[in-house]
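**User:** My hope is that you can spare some time for a protein that puzzles me. As I understand it, each token names a local backbone shape. I would be glad if you read both lines and explained how they fit together. The protein I mean follows directly.
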Amino acid sequence: MRIDGRTRIEGGRERWTLVPESLDDLWHLSYVLEPGDLVSGDTTRRIQRNDDRMRDTGGEREPMSVTITVDESEFHKFANRLRVSGTIESASREDQVGHHHTLNVEEHAKSKSRKSGSQTSENASRRPSMPPKTRMSPSPQ
């Protein structure tokens, strides 16, 4: 995993800019992230339009950057990504704050992370042993 930046913030905490370079990095990241951590990244979100149309069009996908408070993270080894779900804390569109969203973190995709507190022994004990290494082709970019 490549660390593109570390910034000190209030309370002696740090904000890290991470770039996972392999599936192993995504797997490890799934056990580093805890509920309450903040994760930022670029994504698309379906926006519903309120207009005079009689038929629901399902909305349009708009690109935006969001910061979410982590509720859960789940590594999907067959999809080659880590799914991080939570509540939007800040977004490039303020009307989206407070809604739920899932960020898909993939290999070579930059994301920012801020821990809510220090690691505890309870969290360390929930980590399983490292799975055997497997060779998978990276997702197309």
About this structure: The chain has a mean pLDDT of 79.
